[in-house]
Specification:
Chain lengths: 306, 362
């Protein structure tokens, strides 16, 4: 008995003897977490810090001068054209998210409720993401050839005599930008809405119908409310991608349709104003973080447990 | 007559057309009765129930409800409420909203004021002993509570027929028994027709007025629990319902509903036969485990064997006895604390009354 008491005397480090399960669990946790933490630090935190550092400095002709001034932020938020373009990018992102959701919903519903066998569902899922096997640029150019003055659409419209001369409202404007972005990013909305709808047990629909609900009521009162988190998740992805896109606006947009990323590219590459470009970058990131937090909170609030 | 099923046939696409899921099922279900459909999984009981509910439509046959042909009437128009195995509560709605669902639909518009709906919801929740849980979400409830919410939701529109698809399957044993009593009480109180699907024969015996035993899409026997239990018409029914022992043999002779069966080891067993078959027919002698007397082997015993296994089951002991000269084990139930001590390996004698033996050829 005496030796046992001595062995457990205060101050004896049990974990060093390898007998403490919690210490073991902690060590294991550190091993598991180290690689992602390193990755996160090297490829996210450090670059963000560098960008933040640049955003506080200024340019002396072509030389960067470190500093500690908010001037670039003031410029990014107040000087023309930045706030306007930021707003326009936001609206384009929102339109992309909205239209993608609207286009995606019926398809996702058909996949979740219209396809009985898991194999068919998998096949259609592959078909949905199939366009992503083609280069992004090719798809944007494809819309150029569809919407252009001698494009497929105009040729067809003239052939059936609906218009006498090519419509110019189809290309090089905001309509073309949002249409192209919607086309390119809709698969993301389809998959995230489908993932949510797929969780709805068939018995819920049957129970509602058995209780006397019509198809419309089943959609409005059961399927739509339960789908909200999936729609939100898809909207966050399509918004972010639409908001941050710079290839589509420069290829199918008009001179006024440049988005915030196009301006940043110009600032960094053409005008060599790295501090202002960085400041806009920080603003955009801060804005995105806020948006993601809001969307996550909304998703959590609307998510259901079956 | 509340419900009449006439020659229902239903085959699922891709399945074997020669063996439909439901094969010429005919049942008459009295108004206000409690009828159970039982059988192992895949026997067609759930498909039959879903056709009654209008969630599936038969390939052939008719379903009559109070004399009206409802075979192809959509489920929403039938005035029958289905209880689903997974309860199918709407997860995004509160308990109160779930229960009120049926009353807030367009077809009910104008029939109830908001205040009336409120009162009816409270009334139903009280009936199923769940007052004060209106504001909860289904995910915050226990399995038993969800079951009760589903019941309240089904009852609020005052349906004439309630259909149950293995509603207690997900509950633990104690809760199951409590809910069985609860459903019996509700049935007596409401006087509505209950059609109940289960694979648990004890549940069906305890609750039903009549039981339909199904196998391979067909109804083998449709009778009261007592008849099903004491006078099974087929081997399958005997085995499925009454922990019965089946001893295969050949009919020696049958006369006036008494048949004698010769077992492969030469011994002959006498019992009642539902129909007289010609001698030589392959039959089975069916003896329920609780109707067999077991005692330490003596010189007078006609049937002898050796105890292979002894299980203590609380109210009774179960013995598995290997019969001498037979490749068959017989299960024997003996009330705990009766008779002498018998342990594994002991030679024993078995005895029974001829009226407790059924001779079945099917």
């Amino acid at each position: 008995m005496k030796t046992t008491a001595a062995a457990r005397a205060p101050g004896t480090d049990l974990s060093s003897a390898g007998t403490d399960g919690r210490a073991l669990a902690r060590r294991r946790l550190v091993l598991w977490l180290a690689p992602p933490m390193l990755w996160f630090t090297a490829f996210m935190l450090v670059p963000y810090a560098i960008m933040f550092f640049y955003s506080l400095g200024s340019m002396d002709y072509v030389d960067f001068v470190p500093g500690f001034s908010p001037a670039n932020y003031v410029k990014a938020l107040t000087a023309e054209p930045y706030p306007d373009v930021l707003l326009k990018s936001t609206v384009n992102g929102l339109l992309t998210a909205l239209l993608s959701s609207v286009v995606a919903f019926p398809l996702a519903m058909w996949m979740a409720f219209g396809l009985a066998s898991p194999r068919r569902r998998a096949l259609v899922s592959i078909l949905v993401v199939l366009p992503w096997w083609a280069s992004y640029l090719v798809k944007v150019y494809a819309w150029k050839t569809i919407l252009g003055a001698e494009g497929v659409l105009n040729t067809a419209l003239m052939a059936i005599g609906l218009v006498d001369e090519p419509l110019s409202v189809l290309l090089y404007n905001r309509f073309a930008v949002v249409l192209t972005l919607t086309y390119i990013f809709t698969p993301f909305a389809v998959l995230s809405i489908y993932a949510q709808l797929e969780r709805i047990p068939r018995s819920l629909v049957e129970a509602a119908r058995n209780l006397g609900a019509t198809d419309g009521e089943i959609f409005r009162r059961i399927i739509l409310p339960i789908s909200v988190p999936g729609v939100l998740a898809g909207a966050v992805i399509t918004f972010s991608l639409g908001f941050g896109d710079f290839v589509t606006p420069s290829l199918v947009g008009g001179p006024d349709d440049l988005m915030i990323t196009n301006l940043v590219v110009n600032l960094l590459g053409v005008s060599m104003d790295r501090p202002l470009g960085s400041a806009i970058g920080v603003v955009v990131i801060a804005f995105s973080v806020l948006l993601l937090m809001a969307a996550n909170a909304a998703e959590r609030r609307t998510q259901v447990r079956f | 007559m509340a419900l009449e099923l006439v020659d229902l046939v239903k085959a699922f696409p891709g399945a074997d057309a020669a063996h439909p899921a439901v094969d010429r099922v005919s049942l008459t279900i009295e108004r206000g009765s409690f009828v159970s459909l039982i059988g192992s999984s895949g026997c067609g009981k759930t498909t039959t129930l879903r056709m009654i509910a209008g969630l599936e439509f038969p390939d052939r046959g008719r379903i009559l409800h109070e004399g009206r042909d409802v075979t192809l009437v959509p489920t929403s128009e039938r005035g029958m409420r289905m209880m689903f195995q997974d309860y199918a509560l709407f997860p995004h709605m509160t308990v109160g909203e779930n229960v009120a669902f049926g009353l807030r639909l367009r077809r009910q518009r104008g029939r109830h004021t908001a205040g009336e709906i409120d009162r009816l919801v409270d009334e139903q929740l009280e009936r199923v002993h769940l007052p004060g849980l209106r504001g909860r979400k289904p995910a915050e409830l226990s399995g038993g509570q969800r079951q009760r919410v589903a019941l309240a939701r089904a009852l609020i529109t005052d349906p004439e027929v309630l259909l149950f698809d293995e509603p207690l399957g997900a509950l633990d044993a104690g809760l199951r028994r409590a809910m069985q009593f609860e459903l019996k009480r509700l049935h007596a109180e409401l006087g509505k027709t209950f059609v109940y699907v289960t694979h648990d024969q004890h549940e069906a015996l305890a609750m039903s007025d009549r039981i339909a035993v199904m196998h391979a899409g067909r109804v083998l026997q449709y009778a009261t629990p007592e008849d099903i239990y004491f006078t099974p018409r087929t081997r399958y029914v005997a085995r499925f319902v009454g922990s019965a022992n089946l001893l295969d043999g050949v009919l020696v002779d049958a006369d006036r509903r008494v048949g004698r069966v010769r077992l492969p080891n030469g011994s002959v067993i006498e019992g009642s036969a539902p129909e007289d078959a010609p001698a030589g027919t392959r039959v089975a002698a069916v003896i329920r485990a609780d109707r067999i007397e077991i005692r330490p082997a003596g010189s007078t015993d006609a049937v002898r064997g050796t105890v292979q296994e002894r299980l203590f089951l609380g109210t009774h002991d179960e013995f598995l006895v290997r019969l001498d000269g037979l490749d068959a084990d017989v299960s024997v139930h003996r009330p705990t604390g009766t008779g002498g001590a018998i342990s594994v390996g002991d030679p024993v004698g078995l005895a029974w009354q001829p009226e407790n033996v059924r001779v079945l050829s099917e």
